[in-house]
């Protein structure tokens, strides 16, 4: 079996991968339905940004405690409870209680995510041998992106035929697949992760550890900046479709599907190469930033889609390499708290970036927003490359022809 598919030898990982494929498909069907519902009802990209912010805010406030609990408590019972709660929240959206109910569901989802994220990460790393973790993360990105393709493609059809309510119901049902997979797993076949000493199990100990890792801090900073201004495409794509591209709900569904296809291609490329290195991270961050700038100049939906495809591929590579380096370059007994820090950074990028991008789309226009954000993230990628080169001793890429060396 090829290295990229090696994790599939593990029965527990196969169960988890299959359940994740179904669950991710349901999640993105709900995202599509919810985004279009909000945009149709309010006509405001800023409102969509507020929903993303409400999902992210609890993670910022509670994520560190979620990481500390993940390093102490058994993961499987907690994950079953989290999936059941998420199913209830999806069904709540069927009540059509207006924008305020959507806000409440988004906030509750964020509270669950603040505890669920670190638990998921630590649980996933226990399913495969340590040497297969990089391949498992890359393969997980591929499967998640495939679920996103299916969810967005089917959701793009259903939202026009049945309305968004059906999408919410399907998402609620998809969580049953995760609960079933968790119930069928063999706990004796899971890898036991080391546990920190009692004096190092708290939130403060985890924060102290992360602050002592300069490479991790630079990677997290890049993740924040490119995430805040370069990864909020659920806001900017909808604004471009409803604005300068003069698209429809079908156009939004098309772009969402293209984005998902690009994400699969990016995951396959990374999993096949096995190169989850800092150089790959820096090069990808620069390329997707330049492409984002260029997307602001797209003349029509098809031109925008042509740029969305490589942007999505690069975004998956960038995010997967970030997650891989964060886990492989840190201690396993700090895994939950390190992942909680990554989740905190991601939530902060949503809190800052989603409303900011939405406000800029409303105030300056979607095109101008993409141009500005692309320029800022390009500078950030270059600055991060210089900082990592100094800390890690990396050789920055050059365009000079190599000088032949004597035999």
TrEMBL record:
Start and end residues of each Major facilitator superfamily (MFS) profile domain: 201-407
Keyword Cell membrane: yes
Entry-linked SUPFAM superfamilies: MFS general substrate transporter
Pfam families, A to Z: MFS_3
Membrane topology: Multi-pass membrane protein
Cellular component GO terms, alphabetical: plasma membrane
Key words, A-Z: Cell membrane, Membrane, Transmembrane, Transmembrane helix, Transport
GO molecular function: transmembrane transporter activity
Location of this chain's protein in the cell: Cell membrane
Alphabetical list of PANTHER family matching this protein: INTEGRAL MEMBRANE EFFLUX PROTEIN-RELATED, STAPHYLOFERRIN A TRANSPORTER
Protein name, as recorded: Transmembrane secretion effector
């Amino acid at each position: 079996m090829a290295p990229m598919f090696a994790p599939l030898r593990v029965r527990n990982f196969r169960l988890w991968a299959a359940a994740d494929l179904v669950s991710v498909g349901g999640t993105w069907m709900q995202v599509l339905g919810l985004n279009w519902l909000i945009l149709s009802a309010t006509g405001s990209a800023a409102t969509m940004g507020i929903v993303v912010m409400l999902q992210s805010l609890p993670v910022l406030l509670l994520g560190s405690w979620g990481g500390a609990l993940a390093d102490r408590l058994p993961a499987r019972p907690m994950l079953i409870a989290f999936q059941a709660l998420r199913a209830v929240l999806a069904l709540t959206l069927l009540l059509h209680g207006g924008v305020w109910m959507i806000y409440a569901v988004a906030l509750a989802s964020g509270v669950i995510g603040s505890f669920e994220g670190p638990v998921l990460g630590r649980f996933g790393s226990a399913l495969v041998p340590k040497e297969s973790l990089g391949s498992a993360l890359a393969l997980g990105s591929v499967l998640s992106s495939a679920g996103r393709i299916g969810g967005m493609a089917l959701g793009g059809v259903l939202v026009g035929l049945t309305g968004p309510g059906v999408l919410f119901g399907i998402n609620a049902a998809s969580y049953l697949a995760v609960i079933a997979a968790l119930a069928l797993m063999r706990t004796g076949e899971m890898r036991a992760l080391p546990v920190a000493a009692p004096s190092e199990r708290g939130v403060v100990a985890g924060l102290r550890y992360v602050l002592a890792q300069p490479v991790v801090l630079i990677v997290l900073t890049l993740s924040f900046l490119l995430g805040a201004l370069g990864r909020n495409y659920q806001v900017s794509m909808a604004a471009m479709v409803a604005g300068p591209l003069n698209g429809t709900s079908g156009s939004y569904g098309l772009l969402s599907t293209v984005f998902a296809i690009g994400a699969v291609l990016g995951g396959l490329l990374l999993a096949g190469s096995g190169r989850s290195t800092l150089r790959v991270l820096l090069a990808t961050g620069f390329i997707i930033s330049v492409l984002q700038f260029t997307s602001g100049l797209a003349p029509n939906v098809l031109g925008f889609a042509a740029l969305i495809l490589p942007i999505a591929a690069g975004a998956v590579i960038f995010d997967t390499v970030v997650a891989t380096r964060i886990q492989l370059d840190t201690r396993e007994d700090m895994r939950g708290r390190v992942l909680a820090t990554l989740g905190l950074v991601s939530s902060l990028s949503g809190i800052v970036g989603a409303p900011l991008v939405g406000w800029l789309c409303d105030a300056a226009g979607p095109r101008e927003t993409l141009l500005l954000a692309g320029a800022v993230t390009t500078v950030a990628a270059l600055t991060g490359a210089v900082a990592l080169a100094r800390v890690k001793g990396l050789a920055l890429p050059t365009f000079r022809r190599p000088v032949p060396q004597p035999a």
